[in-house]
Amino acid sequence: MIFESWRTMQGIGAALVIGSLVACGGDKGATSDTTASNSMAASADSTAMMAPAGAHWNATLQSMAGTQVTGTASAMAGTSAGTTMAEITISGAPANGEHPWHIHSGTCAGGGDIVGPATDYMPIKADASGNGKSMATVNIAAPTSGDFHVNVHMSPSDLKTIVACGDLRIGAM
C-alpha cells in the first residue's frame, strides 16, 4: 500500500515537472525529432480523471485514409522508473509492409505531438497476411491523466498518411 502510494506520487510529480517544461499539442502530422521531448503529462485544461497507479491505457484503432488497417494498442508504466511500455497489434495492412507508429498527445480528431523520442518506437512489420505487432519502451513516465492517441503511418517514406488511429483511454487490464 505504501509502495503504491509512493509510486503514484512519484508518477504525479514526474508528470507535473515534465508538464511544466513541455507543452502538449501541435501538428497532427508532426513526426520529426523536434517532438521527441514532449511528455505524456496532462494539459492544464484536461478533464480526464486521475488513473490509479499501474493503470493501463487502451485503444481500439480505426482504419483511416481508405485503408483496412485496424488493431489495438495499450500503454502502462514501464518496469524502469520514468518509462512507459507500449504495445500495438494491427491487421489489414499491406502484406510485408513496414509501418511506423507513435503515441501522441491529444486525440485522433485533434492531433498532437509525438510522446517521447520518436526513435523509441520500432516500426510494425506486417507479415504476408497483413498482421503485425510491435512493442516500445518510451523514455517518458507513464501518464496519470490527459488525452493521448496512437497512430500508424503508411510507411517510413510516407509518414503524412495515417492508416489507423485510436484514442487511448484508461481502463482495467
Q: What attributes characterize this protein structure?
A:
Immunoglobulin-like; 1 helix; globular
Topology record:
Elements: H1 2-21, E1 56-63, E2 70-77, E3 84-91, E4 98-99, E5 101-105, E6 124-125, E7 132-138, E8 148-155, E9 158-171
What does it look like?
By secondary structure, this protein is mainly beta. Helices cover 12% and strands 36% of the residues. It has one helix and nine strands. The chain has one helix at residues 2-21, and strands at 56-63, 70-77, 84-91, 98-99, 101-105, 124-125, 132-138, 148-155, 158-171. The strands form two sheets. The chain has a seven-stranded antiparallel β-sheet, with no helix packed on it. Strands 4-6 form a two-stranded antiparallel ribbon. A hairpin with a 6-residue loop joins strand 1 (56-63) and strand 2 (70-77). Mean pLDDT is 77; it is low at 1-51.
Question: In brief, what are we looking at here?
Answer:
The protein has 173 residues and is mainly beta. It has one helix at residues 2-21, and strands at residues 56-63, 70-77, 84-91, 98-99, 101-105, 124-125, 132-138, 148-155, 158-171. The chain is built from one helix and nine strands, in the order αβββββββββ.
N-C termini distance: 20 Å
Count of β-strands? 9
- Which fold name fills CATH's third level, the topology? Immunoglobulin-like
Total number of distinct structural domains: 1
Named CATH architecture? Sandwich
User: Fraction of residues in helices?
Assistant: 10-25%
The main sheet comes to: 7 strands, antiparallel
**Principal-axis shape:** globular
- What is the H/E order? HEEEEEEEEE
Strand arrangement, largest sheet?
A: 5-8-9-1-2-3-7
